[in-house]
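Example 3.2
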Amino acid sequence: MLIQQMTMHRIFNTAIAIAVLSLMLGQAGFVTAQEKTNGDQLRVKAREHRTEIDTALTNFRSARGEKRLEKLKVASKRIVSVRTEALNGLIARLAESKKCKNLSEAQLSEIKAAIQSIITKLETQDSDIASSTDLTKAKTAIKEVYTNNKVFAAVIPATNGACLATRLTFLIDGRLNTLVEKIKAAGIETAEIEALMTKAKSSAEAAYTVYLGILQNPAAENVRASFSTAKSHLQTTRQELGAVKSALAKLRADYEQQTKDGS
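Structure, written as tokens:
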């Protein structure tokens, strides 16, 4: 009997810990130490890229005559290469990052396809600008590199969001569900917790769908609204997981009281 009580206590504590971990992951500002280091390195690299692009654009603005188109093409090459490098790096991180390790094969495939489509579009734009003989058309094409792809403003954040939503789904549907099933097998009523978990999972899946939509069309006019919608879904997931944690804590307290009364 004592061993059974200790086992149940451990199951309750682990389930609550998983719920807390899911809550932490669901917070936009939560990052591990390694993720912070990686983020700092990426920000340093981004600043270096901005400096290089600013220099190239300054050279274009100071150029005269036919040299203007030549200098604009140099700037364009750097603007595009920074974005294709970032996207190729993003694809590589999908397989390496702990944040994205819970993506299914189908999810990984559709995210990679969306990113690769943007890379192909950028490469086509780069080729068109490189062969352009019209300064005005080249300038318009460079603007479209920014507005039609939104690599840093939409694609990278949406990929991170999709990975987060999938990780939450995995924790809910995997480890947390397994522990709740063990509690249920002990004859303890878990219907309320299961209902909360279903809502949390559904909201996380809805967030993933929105993030994927952004990836597949980062130039859409409603991208900002889509990010707000995804954030709202994740907020709902956090609320439901908070309720799961509270319900588990109450079940643990009730169980401990019952075993105490029966001893």
